[in-house]
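Extended Data, panel c. Modelled sequence:
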Amino acid sequence: MANSNAPQLLNEDGTASLATALMTSHHGFRRDVAHFGRALRRIVAGDVSRAAAVREEWTRFRETLHGHHRAEDQGLFPSVRAQHPELEPVIDGLDADHRRIDPLLEAGDESFAALPESAGAALALIDELRALLDAHLAVEEARVVPFLRDAKTFPPPATDAELAMYADGFAWSTHGIAPQVLAEIDRIIPAALVARLPAARAAFAERCVRVWGSAQAGASLTPVPDWIG
């Protein structure tokens, strides 16, 4: 079910921007937290067949989320503070959210490492993390994202290793995004990155099947997956 309150990934003129790229990451976090909740409920109910894969996926997820926050703390948020002083209280609140989320990630390391026995504790943690993230991402989308709509130049990767990292990141964040949005994203990212994406997306779909049991993901036009109410 689409969320009518969520911003559109594309600008009003139908083009992509750095706001689009940021919000696809938000989509990925919301999508994966929902998947973790479903998977953990199955483990609690006695199906432990994917417990090891879920445990491994948590490690990837927490590294991605922590890296996303680090990039905001070191780059995006200081830039927004400097250019838009009126948003300082908003950025202060977002910074505080990061400090609240970090201990949850550390607790998650412990509870996911002990799966399947700790599935109940991991599920409680995921529910708490989802509530925090939902509020945090909604503030970013309402108050910060509008200032990124005019930025339409994606920095080219400096090395082949960085190119591969970007390809994996876009494959993760855009899984479940509508095709028309993907086409516009391709217009603003380097051609070398576009060329890497089909293989990266195929590998990510295989990973989804291994971890969640399916690569089905919807076709979202907003940073809220269209199958989440």
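The two ends are 5 Å apart (CA to CA). This feature is highlighted in the accompanying rendering.
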